[in-house]
Design goal:
Length: 134
Amino acid sequence: MTANAYALLDAEALSRQHPATFWAPGLDPASRSVLAALASGDYVKVSLPGERFWCRVEAVHPGDPRSYTALVDNHLVDYPLAVGSALFVERRHIFDYLPGTPFARELQASRAGGVVADLAGALGSNSPRPAEGP
């Protein structure tokens, strides 16, 4: 896999242009060793114009440890990419990362659940959260 149907944003270029707004772990000396050790099961946050989302690293590409196959792990709002869709991700595309530990997976799931619950409440559907008082 060498291309995506949609162009992922370059986190490193955005961080260079707007350092107070965008953080790119690939430019952070403290994060480089973590990125160098990314493996199957770890999570990376990437972005398309207007939408950031998490992907689970499926594989590190042989011969190029700075590129990965990653699976979309969030329901996207603005793009027709389903959970599980494969993307080609280069290190420069990564806005954030989480190790693939059980805790990280639980944290990521709770983050996504909170957004979904908030959106469901805003749309007036049956939110899993209890109603708050007046």
